[in-house]
Each structure stands twice: as C-alpha cells, then as structure tokens.
Amino acid sequence: MKNFLMMIGIVLFCSSLYGQQLPLTESYFVNRYALSSAYAGNSENESLFASYRKDWAGISDAPRTIRLSYHDGFKSNAGLGGKIAVDKFGIFQSFFAMGSYSYRLQLVTDHFLILGLSAGVNQNSIKFDEYYNDPKFTNDPSMINKRRNSNLTLVSDFSVIYSYKAFQTGLLLSNFSNSDSKYSGVRTVYSPFMHYQLHAIHTLSLGDDWQFTPLAVLRGGKNVKAQLEVASQFKYNNKLWGSIAHRGKNVSCVGFGLNMTKGVLLNYTYNFFTGVSVSAFQNHELTLGLNIGEFIR
Questions:
Q1: Residue 131 has what pLDDT?
Q2: Dist. CA 165–CA 22, nearest whole Å
Q3: What are the structural domains, with CATH classification, of the chain?
Q4: d(CA 288, CA 50)
Q5: 29, 64, 168, 186: which sits with the fewest CB atoms below 10 Å from its CB?
Q6: Which candidate, 23, 176, 40, places its Cα nearest to that of 99?
Q7: Hey, which residues does 273 pair with through a beta bridge?
Q8: Rounded to whole angstroms, how far apart are CA atoms 297 and 293?
Q9: For the chain, which ranges sit under pLDDT 50?
C-alpha cells in the first residue's frame, strides 16, 4: 500500500517524467517486426501477430501488455506495417498505435540496405476509479470515479538494417521526434526520451533439418543504462524450436514454440531474475502468429 501511494505521489507531483516507447518483448525470433520497423514487409510477410505478456507474475497488479501487429510487402521493394500495444501497470495505462513504412535498396548482389520509419500516437492514463474502489477511500470525492487521460502525443522511430543473405544488423532510434504528454488538471509532464537499439542476427543451417540463429541486442538511451542481451534459437524442420537468452546481469529467458498447422504458430517465453525471489519476479509471454497468405492457400 505504501509503495502504491508513493507511485501516485510521484506521478501527481513531479514536474516531469521520462519513459521509453513500446514495452519490452521477447517474440523477436518469430516476429522480427517487433525488433525493428525496417523489417516490415521484409520478414514473415502477410503475418498477423497477437501477444500477451505478464511481468512480475508473483505480484498483484503487475505490468501486463497486449500487442497486435501486422505487416506485408508493398510493391517490389517497399513494406507496410502497423502495431498496437496496451501496457497496464496497476492504475497506470499506456496506449500505443503506430504505422511503419520500409524501403529496400540493393547495394550490390546479395547486399541490401533497408530503411524503416514509424510514426503514431501514445496516450497515458491514470485510473483512480480502480484504486479508490476500496470503501476505505470513498470519502475522497475529488478522486472517486475519476480517470485522468493525457493528451495524444506523437511517437516515432527510424531504423536502418544492413542485410547480406542470412545475416542482418541494424540500428533503431526511437522518439527522435516527439511531444510531451500532459494531463489536464494534474501538474505532470511525461517526456518520452530518445533511445537506441543495435542488433545483429544470423541464421545458420545445420544439415537439412536444423537451423541455429544467434542474436545480440544492445539497448540504451537518455536516462537509461546500456544493456546487452544475447540469445539463440534452435529450430527443427521449421516445425519446432527452442530458445535461450540472457539480458543484463540478472535476467535469463527460455522459450519454445511450434507451427501448429499451415500458417499458424504458437510461441511462449519465460524469463526470471536471478538474485531475487523467482516466485515473484517472473515474466510470461505468449504469442500467436497467423500467416494469412499461407493459411488461405
């Protein structure tokens, strides 16, 4: 209870807050569009992905995230995509809706440069009605059944990827153009800050049936310490796969998935923090993918 009151006090009385863009995900092996906007129309084309993520599963009112995305190729070298995310933590909620455009340039044979641009809107909410539904707090008429919504703000990202056969490496810059999020009647300003993400991924064939895909991701930005994530995936006959990952100093992750039928896949990841109670700080993410073209055919 004291921690919740402290969080409310921070939101209501701080002159400014800082935050990054979309919440974290670990579905990038099956949906590379979640890793960079430049992958829109350049991987898993005609694919619709829906995912649900619950962080800190052992804690009540822990963060929960719902995502929906779709992307496909457009003309010969262009791609289009869109993504929606709702991130909820206790009485705090964020909504994101973004569209992406990508264009692929051929440098020489097998060497490509892919440019991606995303833009959209974000709105943050404080749901006091969910917190003050306890009868002990009904004596506060100023907050009963009140929800504070911020104004719609612009969010954006720019990405570039170098691709050579089964190897890709790229840079993502988020919030390079943004506006502050303000609440009416509350002295709070939420200022999205610019952050960067570097990644490299390579798919290796191990015989006729097996594939091995290592991945490295470096994240950082304003007011955020740089964090390195390394991961790898083994895939059998394009039907079954398993993955492991380690992020920063204390986060480990395992995952597995399968193609259930033509065009339909299911992926699950589980990560936990070492050095603290595993029962409290554990994260689950479930992703369902549908390749519309393959499914219809």
A1: 60
A2: 29
A3: 26-296 (2.40.160.40)
A4: 5
A5: 186
A6: 40
A7: 251
A8: 6
A9: 1-20
